[in-house]
Amino acid sequence: FLPVYKFMCFHGEPRIIQTIQNDKQPNESIDYFDTEWNLLKLRQGFPNSVKPFEKPDKLKEMCEIARKLSKGHAFLRVDLYVINGEIKFSEFTFYSDAGLSKFEPESWDDTLGEWIDLPV
Length: 120
What we know:
Elements lengths: L3 E7 L2 E9 L7 E5 L25 H12 L4 E9 L2 E8 L13 H8 L6
Antiparallel strand pairs: 1-2, 1-4, 2-3, 4-5
């Protein structure tokens, strides 16, 4: 299965990168990184991986693509793949997990909420 890189962008700035191993399989695992590829202590419905992905060679380029595509949105998740060394677009998601999947630890709810500035 291909690694999936999901960029959680807030106001056009990638903040968290969700990586999925064995997507949609019984042994699916998910890890979260910041844009410097530091592993975050964060879970959301799935176990973390036994061995998280190594930092992708195209990380800076993927961050720039996510930045450009998410510009003008309070929140947008930009999903990308790297296939044979080329970055491929997968999808946009405006409400990740329909906004229903809980974060562990719960303090991430506050952190992510602070990153969104909605007009009144």
